[in-house]
Write a structure and sequence with these properties.
Elements: E1 2-3, E2 6-7, E3 24-30, E4 62-66, H1 67-72, E5 86-89, E6 91-93, E7 99-101, E8 103-108, E9 116-126, E10 129-136, E11 155-164, E12 170-177, E13 185-193, H2 203-227, H3 234-258, H4 264-289, H5 299-315
Length: about 325
């Protein structure tokens, strides 16, 4: 990132959002010195009486608030209790003593004239819409405390607004002054991964195939366990069949929890490969190694057969 304050280098995150709620992902490279902040922003590392305010960038909490909320209530534009309309970059220590910091560090100049060039805020998944960037006081979304209401959330407007409508994109937003001696705020976006251009409706055929396969597998499995079980064991064998489904789900959960794959596409291919192996094993068992048993008659039919055979023998 190149700005009036200097040059900043950081690794970009190219992993797309995975929450499945149509978000995009973005981070903030904040390069505004404290001297350019509104006078009411005196929290964090910025203080209006600080002699180094020209050489220090703001590194306190930040918030993105839905512009519709701002238009409805200009005095209190941010509502932390409105899910999907408020996102915060915060710093605090939780009840277990663990430090939570949504920043990826600060960047200082390497020359003898020390300056804090930028504060890098982590990537977050954001829902598409119209957004405004604010300086945030406190930790309104601390999970160990009650979420602030709108009136208790103190913010100051940075002057940055933007609108992103696409899903699945990854962006890096740089906030800086328009020039070295300027106090005007400038925001630039760098697109790391473009937004999705394939319609999500293309997932419908996939869901149809997956659903049909699940139904056919379940029905045929239940039919097999019922027809091949002895009359007195049908319920037990069907229960064991359902238990195998439960164990299969546990295997998937264990693999996901172990985080064996860094790439989700590779993980899905591994699951598909395992299914192919299981299919081949089932085919071999059904063709070469299993003798089918047919329990096609119930007890009443057996009794009738016994009566008929007895009558025939008496006549003889």
């Amino acid at each position: 990132v190149l700005g009036p304050q200097g040059v900043v280098q950081r690794l970009a995150d190219w992993r797309k959002p995975t929450e499945g709620e149509g978000e995009f992902k973005m981070n903030i490279n904040f390069m505004l010195p404290c001297s350019t902040l509104p006078p009411n922003v005196t929290w964090g590392n910025c203080n209006s009486s600080d002699a180094n305010s020209d050489r220090t960038t703001y590194s306190g909490p930040m918030a993105l608030c839905d512009q519709d909320d701002r238009e409805n209530n200009e005095q209190y534009p941010c509502d932390p209790r409105h899910d999907g309309h408020f996102y915060a970059w915060q710093m605090y220590t939780d009840s277990r003593g663990k430090a939570v910091d949504d920043r990826n560090g600060t960047v200082n100049s390497s020359d003898t004239n020390w300056r804090q060039i930028a504060t890098i805020y982590d990537y977050k998944d954001i829902k598409p819409g119209k957004w405004a960037l604010y300086y945030l006081q406190g930790t309104p979304k601390n999970p160990d405390d009650r979420t602030y209401d709108r009136g208790a959330t103190h913010v100051a407007f940075t002057g940055v607004t933007f609108q992103i409508n696409g899903q699945g994109g990854i962006y890096s937003m740089t906030v800086s002054t328009a020039g070295k001696n300027s106090t005007n705020v400038n925001a630039n976006f760098h697109t790391i991964v473009p937004a999705n251009h394939i319609s999500i409706l293309w997932q419908i055929p996939q869901y149809v195939v997956i659903t049909a396969a699940e139904i056919l597998f379940s029905i045929t499995g239940l039919e097999f366990s019922y027809s091949q079980a002895a009359p007195s064991m049908k319920s037990v064998v069907q229960a064991l069949w359902l238990l195998t489904v439960a164990f299969g789900d546990l295997i998937i959960l264990a693999i996901a929890a172990a985080a064996l794959f860094s790439n989700m596409a590779v993980e899905m291919l591994a699951f598909a490969g395992a299914m192919v192996v299981v299919i081949c094993v089932f085919i071999l068992l059904s063709v070469f190694y299993y003798d089918y048993t047919f329990y096609t008659r119930d007890e009443s039919e057996d009794d009738n057969d016994a009566d008929v055979s007895g009558t025939v023998s008496t006549v003889e």
